[in-house]
Amino acid sequence: MKTYIGLLLLLPVVISFAAESKNENVENRIKIGILTLEQYDKASEIADKAQYDLISLVKEVGFYECFDQPALEKQLEQTGDKLPKHCRDPKCVVEVGRLSGMDRMIFGSLEWGNNECGIKLVMIDVRTRQTIETVTLKGASGVPYIEVMKAAVAKLHGRTIKETSFAEYYGPKVHNEKQLMISSAACIGLGILYGGINYGVDQKVTKITADYEDEPLSGIATTGVALFARPAALANSYVALSDDAYGVLYNPAGMSWVAGPQAVLAYQYRFGLDNFAATYVNKATREIGFGQALFYRADRDHLMTEMFFVSAIGYKFNNLPHMRPFSLGANVKITSNRVKSTSEISSGGSSLGVGIDAGLMTELSDQIRYGLVFRDIPLLHRWKNVKTGETYFESEPTTLLMGGTFKVGYTTLLIAEGQIPLYDDQTWKMAGGLEQEFFNLFCLRMGLKREIMANYETPWYITGGFGFKVTTDQETGRYLSLDGSYEYNTLQVFDVINISMRFGF
After folding, report:
1. Which homologous superfamily does the CATH classification assign to the domain defined by 15-168?
2. Residue 248 · residue 281 · CB < 8 Å
3. pLDDT tens digits for 437-464?
């Protein structure tokens, strides 16, 4: 009897200890938010079940307290915030995790169709604002999606999987080949038509000096001007960052890295010249990206005008053993120039030219990217002097540029670039820049550039700028970005001002 009485007295203590242990285990669990996966192909047909399975698999890991997207929305409502409808950017995901009190976040995408499944999962540490792990898996034909998801969650937490049933997943399938062909043909065709008319019309316009044949190669190509506001603010260092609509004139290899359709309208005032540009980029397939650009330059009196039509294409090599993805790209440039004769002793004329650039871009790690481009290999102009009737060829010098980027978290970007001389009279050029984002809304940029010449004092080019990005459609993630920049020259101040508007569709 005494034994039973003793057990009854100890029972509340045992129950209390068990409850405390349970509460302690819950408190020690990692709070993880799991956003609804973005759906491609026919994934919407299994979306609800797939999301439930994903959360269940993450719970089975054992040390998580899981919050699905509706639970995150409730957490945010308590603080007066709201979950964006299209939150797939890591910066947005981190901000949602911070506001909802999460320790980690998971987001990604699911593609399902034709008896195949591809999944991408990204796990982020909210406190450090760093990616813990990214998993991209594609199941062999006939492998159920749940098996792909199990393997992805296991790999997300460092566990090994049977590679025979899975392969690397490189994103959803894209079929914009027709858009590539039509836009490229239109851009090149328009360039040839405009240039042919400009060259054929008999006007008193050409370069002031008629004889160029004996002059050595020197300088940089005209398309090397820091035209767009974001590249200009970063001291024109953009060879390794050309994965957007700004990159068409910088490195064609970057076209295969674009996330989706983008367009840019830009204006620059530089040394008394007005420069205008319009570009468009998109993905043609999962591996191929393309871009088209129009670039116009003229002085206020229109004594000199230049027009460029640029069509660029890049191919990304994804499925290479033991190698990170890299891309190769090339563009075709059709140029048209004219110079008006201002007096009887000055010449006038026009030209038609064609050129090619070739580039490379690769990832060295998740944070480091490298880019290289050979510009104008070649760029050849056919000039016509209308006063003398003389025609001749002039070529631009080929230039070699290479650079790299380093991402510090999701809000800080460091970039550097250099021009390597290919001819005796070309100079070394060194440049670098910094971009810092604030509140997932605006960013500040600065850069420094200088030419290195042995016998001459060269100026420092100090650049700076800003950027604002506003999401215009929460459902689709469409956005508008406004960028501006200014350049200061330490030897003589010239006004160089850039304004660019970038649209994401």
Report:
1. TolB, N-terminal domain (3.40.50.10070)
2. yes
3. 988 789 999 999 998 876 777 889 999 9
